[in-house]
Design goal:
The protein is of the alpha/beta class. Helices cover about 45% and strands about 15% of the residues. Strands 1-2-3-4-5-6-7-8 form an eight-stranded parallel barrel, surrounded by five helices. The radius of gyration is 17 Å and the shape is globular. Bound molecules: 2-phosphoglycolic acid. The site of 2-phosphoglycolic acid has 13 residues, from strand 8.
Length: about 250
């Protein structure tokens, strides 16, 4: 059985002091949850402080992006090697990076390799935009993104896929649970084709896009969906705790 994973993508919100306050508010209630893995992804400059707050708890910390090289003359970039000293996860290929910073599947693939090489678990984001959705191209686009992101990635690599339809992100207009489940199932078929059925069945696939405490159960009730990547609602401690709690599955001891 797959353990659901609920990650909060704080995006470019919170100054250091606010990030620490949010982390402190989440630490107790998230630590008390069983049967769900929680990941906080603050802005780069707050990762160290948030990680310090989460020390000794089961709560994981992640970055929102990384560069493809481990070190070097790349002014302004943050390497996966630096991140690996502080956190466990890194979001790769988020649609906002693809949209505003020109990231394509080939760059996303390099970032996936860079993360894995440094022992970070990439949360690989895929999803169609509105025009592609309306043109009925969702399956084709998502399959291409998954294959592109995972080119030459070995079967035993630890990674998470987040299906995030671009039109659902930050719009208050989520996909339906059934539609998200259908795309998650398709992602799993691509993984099965690449790595075999067992690996595909073990892979965790999140849904992301306007997930909140009210609508999350619709996604967590779907058999192919293993948690969520949460943006706006992850900035409110109570709401994020409610979402993570709703994702928790009974622990088999
Ligand atoms: P949202 O963002 O929950 O604010 O829609 C999700 C994401 O971008 O990961």
């Amino acid at each position: 059985m797959r353990t659901p994973i609920v990650a909060g993508n704080w995006k470019m919100h919170t100054v250091l002091e606010e990030a620490v306050a949010l982390a402190r508010g989440l630490r107790g209630p998230l630590s008390a949850l069983r049967g769900v893995e929680c990941v906080l992804c603050p802005p780069f400059i707050s990762i160290a402080a948030v990680a310090a707050e989460m020390a000794g708890t089961p709560i994981r910390v992640g970055a929102q992006n990384c560069y493809v090289a481990d070190q070097g003359a790349y002014t302004g970039e943050v390497s996966p090697r630096m991140l690996a000293a502080l956190c466990q996860y890194v979001i790769v290929g988020h649609s906002e990076r693809r949209q505003h910073f020109g990231e394509d599947d080939s760059l996303v693939n390099k970032k996936v390799h860079a993360a894995l090489r440094n022992g970070l678990v990439p949360i690989v984001c895929v999803g169609e935009n509105l025009a592609q959705n309306e043109a009925g191209q969702t399956g084709e686009v998502v399959a291409r993104q998954v294959r592109g992101a995972l080119a030459d990635v070995p079967a035993d690599a630890a990674l998470v896929i987040a299906y995030e339809p671009v039109w659902a992100i930050g719009t208050g207009r989520p996909a339906t649970g059934a539609d998200a489940n259908r795309v998650a199932a398709l992602v799993r078929e691509v993984l099965a084709d690449l790595y075999g059925r067992d690996r595909a069945d073990a892979a965790r696939i999140q849904y992301g896009g306007s997930v909140n405490a009210k609508n999350c159960a619709e996604f967590f009730g779907q058999p192919e969906i293993d948690g969520a990547l949460v943006g706006g609602a992850s900035l409110k401690a109570d709401e994020f705790v409610a979402i993570a709690g709703a994702a928790a599955r009974p622990v088999v001891s």
